[in-house]
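go over this:
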Amino acid sequence: MRIPFALLALLLTVGSGCKSAGGPPLTEIAEAINSTLQPAETVLGPGDQITVRFPHSPTWDQELQITAGGSASFLGIGDLHVAGMTVTSLRANLMQAYSYVVENPDLNVVLTGVAARTVYVMGEVTNPGEFELRADRRLTLIEALARAGGPRKESAYLEHTLLVRWSAETGQQMAWKLDATEPYWTGSVPLYLQPYDVVFIPNTPIDEVAIWVDNHIRRMIPFPYVMSTD
């Protein structure tokens, strides 16, 4: 999923504000944020390919690809927003939907193709953009900043670093404001990112996190939007 240029420009020039207290130090909050990492089951995302099989009604079998907007078009029930679901949750949703269409709605869902998984590093960094995760689908916050060329020394407000994450378990986006200044880069517990995380380094304080995310970041993530802040 590519970020529209206009949105990128907006993120790079987000409005001014007065200096205020930043978030908790990276070293203090890393463990709590890591506890929200998605477990092993893959969360569906744009570009993934899925196969739906009906053991008792094979004429309904189908192969689909999730669109850039996070939806897929299913026979008989139309478009459903599936990005952010696990295969298990998608199967449950489809069985319920097909119970009104197929006499025996028993079905299986198989993830047959997985698109690249990325995180976004935006704002006051040298090379903002999206970066592909390693094979284990993990990347630390500091590694992500390094891939983005590092924070801009003259303008990066690392004390108000913002991390936004999708939780497939709760169906919500979570957001944290944290202090990611250099003294906290070498803590004993790294802060790990997962697919579709957004890291934003502002040039001015971000005080009302939920409002700021609602106005700027939610449009970047192809998941249904319900905000939860921690």
Remarks:
- The first strand starts at residue 49 and ends at 53.
- The two ends are 26 Å apart (CA to CA).
- The chain has two domains: 5-39+116-229, 49-113.
- The longest helix spans residues 87-98.
